[in-house]
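queue> pop job 88
queue> type: inverse folding (structure -> sequence)
queue> payload:
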């Protein structure tokens, strides 16, 4: 297994490759994303916040968590290199959600069941209390193995559609599993149909797919 230092070195090499190709596959630098839907007008790049949501329930194996950690480290390091000022909010969840610091987000271990809506509700609460959309560009990335209480998946869809997506510039969901999709994926597919320009989703089955999926999720959306 990679040490923390090895992971950082690998991801910094990935970032260097991203920066070399920035003209061909732009990221969200300068917040130059234009959507036909909602017609959001971005605020200055210095007023950006990125929400990182990660499932840490018992169904998330160590392999799942390692992939999620590497995905978020890549995202975090890229944002730090491309924005002069940016705030990152880390939210971990199992049956309940908690805002944590970087260290706890990446390295603390949890067990138990899964209620994904707990993370979405906490994100909504934090946005309302600290990040008014009139002053902040809001982005979010969520990582999960797709396992969730079935009764909760429609709740997630409702929260996203009514309370989160109208406020954010972009929301990306990554499902980390080689297995068949579960209810959460199918609920999120409905969301993607309704919000094709501000919501995207991809599946990751092994570590080799992290960089391609990262690039696909955050490439520029053409007008």
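queue> result:
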């Amino acid at each position: 297994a990679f040490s923390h230092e090895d992971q950082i070195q690998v991801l910094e090499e990935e970032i260097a490759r991203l920066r070399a190709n920035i003209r061909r596959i732009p990221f969200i630098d300068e917040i130059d994303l234009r959507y036909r839907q909602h017609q959001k007008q971005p605020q200055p790049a210095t007023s950006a916040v990125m929400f990182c949501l990660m499932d840490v329930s018992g169904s998330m194996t160590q392999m799942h968590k390692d992939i999620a950690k590497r995905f978020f480290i890549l995202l975090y390091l890229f944002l730090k290199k491309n924005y002069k000022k940016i705030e990152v909010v880390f939210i971990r969840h199992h049956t309940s959600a908690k805002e944590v610091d970087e260290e706890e987000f990446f390295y603390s271990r949890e067990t138990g069941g899964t209620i994904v809506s707990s993370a979405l509700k906490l994100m909504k609460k934090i946005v309302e209390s600290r990040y008014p959309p009139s002053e902040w560009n809001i982005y979010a990335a969520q990582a999960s193995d797709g396992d969730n209480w079935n009764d909760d998946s429609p709740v997630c869809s409702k929260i996203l559609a009514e309370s989160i997506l109208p406020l954010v510039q972009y929301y990306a969901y990554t499902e980390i599993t080689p297995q068949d999709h579960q209810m959460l994926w199918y609920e999120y597919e409905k969301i993607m149909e309704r919000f094709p320009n501000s919501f995207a989703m991809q599946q990751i089955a092994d570590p080799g797919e992290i960089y391609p999926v990262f690039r696909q999720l955050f490439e520029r959306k053409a007008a």
